[in-house]
Write the structure tokens for this entry.
Amino acid sequence: MNGSRWKSVGFALLLASTPLSAVMAAQDVLVVARAEDAPTADPGIEISNSGYTLIYAAYERLIAYKGASTEVKPELAESWTADDAGLVWTFKLARDHKFDDGSPVDAAAVKFSFDRLMKLKAGPSDAFPVLKEVEVVDPQTVKFHLTAPFAPFISTLAVAGAAIINPKVMAHEKDGDLAKGWLAEHTAGSGPYRISSWERNQSVVLDRNEHYAGTKPALNQVVIRVVGDISARRLQLTSGDADIIEQIPPDQADALRKDSSVVVESNPSMYVNYIYMNNRQPPLDDVKVRQAISYAVDYQGIIDGIMLGQAKQMRGAVPSGMWGHDPQGFQYSYDIDKAKTLLKESGKSNIHLTYTFSQADPAWEPIGLALQASLAELGIKLDLQAVADTTKREMVANGKFDMAPGAWTPDFADPYMFMNYWFDADKMGGPGNRSFYNNKQVTALVKEAGSIVDEGKRKSLYTEAQKLAAQDAPYLYIMEKNDIFARRAAVKGYIYNPMLIQVYNFGTMSKAQ
């Protein structure tokens, strides 16, 4: 996206007169080295974790996640109530919150942000399927009107897309783009930091927001540096030029653990790897073929051999750690004899499939090679096709594939994020149902579960839907991956949240002497 770029003059002068490592080693500057740049910092557009790194640092929302948990707490909203029908939600805003230009955060800004989100109709708006209108009652009171009850509503207000944006950004609107071009590389929030410079595919600099209403952050500046090569990222960490590095393969994480100045974080997460099987394309439109493939996968071999044990096999769509997970749910296991029997029952033979993948996740290629070997035992030929990640996404969204790997993390703490996106027949392709799975009974179950507020009833509906879907085998449920990254031991105060991968609580982090 197009957007004007501007730099923090102080930082630019500092770079000009000081060796880079000395700048990065400063106690009040935190440096994160990662493999790729964020696509955009616009809360109304961005759906990637790398973009969330910037959005969560620069913006506040009405609601926030409580530390390491999936529970929520007030942020910009100090309290809220709902009517008996669950259709009108009233929020009282906390006072003294200000945007980074000193403007107050008020009800008009809340309305502007959600009106803009719904007008953009990009991925983040999908979290608000029943939002009808946002009404300003007075400067400190705002009402949300829904067309139907929506159980996850409060949780959705903690997502990146619910960030409250300064309405003054409309001064940067061009050709009716709702300031999308400008917000791609700038921020206009009330969070602890603000973007001060962005050099594409090189670095993003976040400066402290001097108008932030919370406790003044210890870190004056956060630098997010793009370093594509993992060996180069490792060197920067061990030399002290970077404080945090991301996307570390398990074997390299083991090597880093030997360095006493480094802490390797390997935390169970809700980040899942799974494989879409195109349910509407022969021969994968045959449930017995999909079941046969599901039994041909050596799940534990993938976890032990590729992830070095830093993962566990999925058991259904809803990951462990989130309510709605079924610990007794059906789980496919490696059973080549059963796979051969099912394939024979299908009557299909001479099957030739393509596994389309990108390098966005380092596990995808070795998973494809493992799958290729397993399917060869069934007499199925599997070709591996490497493409750019944007190409892969387009092919999947348009159903132009046989099999393709995917990764998914929830944006809010509700099984809706998995069940309704993956299994609703109305969300085929890009929105989430990327296997083009169509079971009317399952669709009805997840739709009902998403429209009621009784958690016990919802759990029952989602459990039934998971059981039915497991028998249909629309996806290969591979693994729940640990989130692996490494930090300097001097970095203090980091709080890990299993949903917010690549999101850091920069505002309360620090670096020891």
